[in-house]
Amino acid sequence: MRGGIRIIRALVGGERDLDILASYRDVRCHASVETIKAALNGNDRPEHIFALTQSLDLYYFYQSKMLECDRNLEAMLDVLAAEQEHDPGQLPKARTKTKQVGTPSFDVRAALFGVLGLDLTQIHGLGPSLSLKLVGECGTDLCAWLSAKHFTSWLCLAPSNKISGGKILSSRTRRSSSRAAALLRLAAVTIGRSDTALGAF
């Protein structure tokens, strides 16, 4: 359990000793014990503790609902994977071991590999969660698009060149509300911040 939640649970439970509360801080926290104690020192009015209790209850409620969504999503992916014949043993090693924030509680890489037969996370910029969302938006069959150019045009990611007299007047991309396009732009930003050959651009 993370330090912040432990401190909140202790406050709701009636603990007011600053030394004890500060001892619940996460070991990775950069703030000193004295800083934590100073931040926790205040007037604990009953109405504030009540509001904090309500917020904590809601936090756990939403966590449980998110877990239910993960279980349902995992079950649906298992159904889709059962229709395929991909060998789970062919799943390559993870390119990175860092777990992204907001990633579902199950093994997304393995679940997607069972459906697709390939690991999208091997592509720089595509983590498990983003890959799952992208497949959810575009599906597993891209035959509806004749080529990659048609696909990028559909996403409004290809420049819309305005040419007059042989000169390009504008090459802005068209506006789009496509969630798939937004996901790919997010992947591009991630790549730009990475220490890779693509990130050098």
Q: What is the strand arrangement across the widest sheet?
A: 1-2
Q: Helicity, in percent?
A: 40-55%
As a percent range, the share of strand residues is under 5%
The best one-word shape is extended
Number of helices: 8
Low-confidence stretches: none
What is the average per-residue confidence, as pLDDT, rounded to a whole number? 86
Biggest β-sheet, characterized?
A: 2 strands, antiparallel
List how many beta strands DSSP finds. Answer: 2
End-to-end distance? 40 Å
Helix/strand/pairing category: mainly alpha
- What's the SSE pattern? HHHHHHHEEH
> What oligomeric state do these chains adopt?
single chain
What is Rg? 24 Å
Describe this structure as you would to a colleague:
This protein is mainly alpha-helical and 201 residues long. It is 50% helix and 3% strand. The chain has 8 helices and 2 strands. The protein has helices spanning 3-12, 18-22, 33-40, 46-82, 108-116, 128-138, 148-154, 179-192; strands at 162-164, 167-170. The protein has a two-stranded antiparallel sheet. A hairpin with a 2-residue loop joins strand 1 and strand 2. Helix 4 (46-82) runs parallel beside helix 5 and helix 6 (128-138) runs antiparallel to helix 8. The longest helix has 37 residues, at 46-82. The protein starts with a helix and ends in a 9-residue tail after the last helix.
Any chance you could write out the topology, listing elements then pairs?
Blueprint: H1 3-12, H2 18-22, H3 33-40, H4 46-82, H5 108-116, H6 128-138, H7 148-154, E1 162-164, E2 167-170, H8 179-192
Antiparallel strand pairs: 1-2
